[in-house]
Amino acid sequence: ARQFRKALDLSKDAAERWSGDKLIDARLKSDQGGLELIASSYQNARKLLDQSLAGLDAAEVPDLRSLPLVLVNLATAELACDSRDQAEKHLARCSNLYREQRLPDDPVRAECEYLRGVSASQRGDFAGAMKFFRAGLVVCDSVGKPAESVRFNLWLNTALIHKEQGDVASAQDSLKQAATALTGFADAEDLSFALIDAVRADMYISQGKVPPAVALIPRIESACEKNHIRGGYLWTTTRHVRALEQMVNKEDRKST
């Protein structure tokens, strides 16, 4: 956290030092916005990325290296601020940029497809979301290891859609793919492993299978404790499964 704050401060110092050069200023605003995005300061990120985009658009020659990343990061901030229409506009522009300029596949393009899928799923267009997720996975296959974190998100969200539609077998297969992608870039303590376990536990509960769900809970509880989590999806999943465990045990005692 200290290193991150130092990076953000250095970015701000650099922005002040190079203020006046429009292209450099736009790139620094992009860096600052990306750091604010990581810190979940979405309003600040949106403001900085808006400024960066305006600066890049004002350039005589388009910066095809910086522009896609700014568009994707700005779309992320817009989605976090419940501005889906704006996010979709930026994502469509980013997708068109790759196609029209024949830019090579990279993790940013994969992230663009992922976010288009997320936005579609938020609108309830699950068929459209799956189309974007599949397109993102094709990009990940092209890019390879640098896109593994995006691949994880794509498979995880694919699993969640299958889960909501009651296709447990497909959801489980997608979760396996997500876990495989995660092991390619994350350490064993990464919170995302607990997230996969929580989704699996949810699916077991939806099938009325309490014991296998309970078996997953200690790892999720351990992750919550290590990361000081006392709310949200992981925490509520553990509480829900533990409550069902108590009910099942109570019924078993009555029957004996």
How are the SSEs ordered, and which strands pair?
Layout: H1 2-17, H2 22-38, H3 42-58, H4 67-80, H5 84-100, H6 107-122, H7 126-143, H8 148-164, H9 168-183, H10 191-206, H11 210-226, H12 232-255
Helix pairs in contact: 1-2, 2-3, 2-4, 3-4, 4-5, 4-6, 5-6, 6-7, 6-8, 7-8, 8-9, 9-10, 10-11, 10-12, 11-12
Short description:
The chain has 256 residues and is mainly α. It contains twelve helices and no strands.
Number of strands: 0
Query: Spans with pLDDT under 50 lasting ≥5 residues?
Result: 1-21
Mean pLDDT: 88
Distance between the termini: 53 Å
Strand content: under 5%
Radius of gyration: 21 Å
Oligomeric state of this protein: single chain
Please trace the helix and strand order, writing H or E for each element.
Answer: HHHHHHHHHHHH
- Which term fits the overall shape? elongated
Q: Structural class, judged by helices and strands? A: mainly alpha
Helix content: over 70%
Helical run tally = 12
Largest sheet: none
